[in-house]
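look at this fold:
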Amino acid sequence: IPLERPGTRGVFRREIAGGGERTLVSADEPFFASMREVADRRSMPAFAARGERFLVGDGLRYRLALYAARGDTILTFGRELPPRLPTLREVELRTATLEGSAGPGMTRDAIQPEIEKFAATPLAHFAHPAAWIDDVGRVRVVGAVSDSAFLDVFVGTAYLGRATFTCPDFRRRIAQSDHRLVLLCADADGGATDLKVWRVDAAAGDSAR
């Protein structure tokens, strides 16, 4: 997936030797076409693969599509959630970035429209590399809720539930395996130095702990 331009090329397979490409999912396929409908998109689609299947996730709308290895759609699913607007902390971080990059003599009033636009524009519930397909076919999705993190679990199109974690400002600093979730969280001073590891207990009623 060309992650910098979501929805523009679909999914293609590239040969390691020789660099040849073969399209698996066309950009005109309905799931990918829907991602082009949002012009002000600030997230990369999630992607995960296992065995003969791969998964693409649109974090802005919380929709996921599971495909067979040759590109045939197996199913689409997701959650109906309200838009995720930036939290106060996210607005403050964005403001600090804008103030730090402002030119000489530029005042707070000059960047205020950009701050207000950011605060009113929905962010993605999740982004790459949020998705994981485990060893029995469940789909896990890690994303942001308030100023912390969530882990949602699906079997097929069925939503099994959500676990939440205290982990401010983890952004996309995520690592997963079948039985572990690792996030790099912000510490009390805002630095990304707090590495947290959770065990995923898939045997406990098909839920995560």
Summary: Helices lie at 30-35, 88-101, 108-120. The CA atoms of residues 94 and 115 lie 7 Å apart.
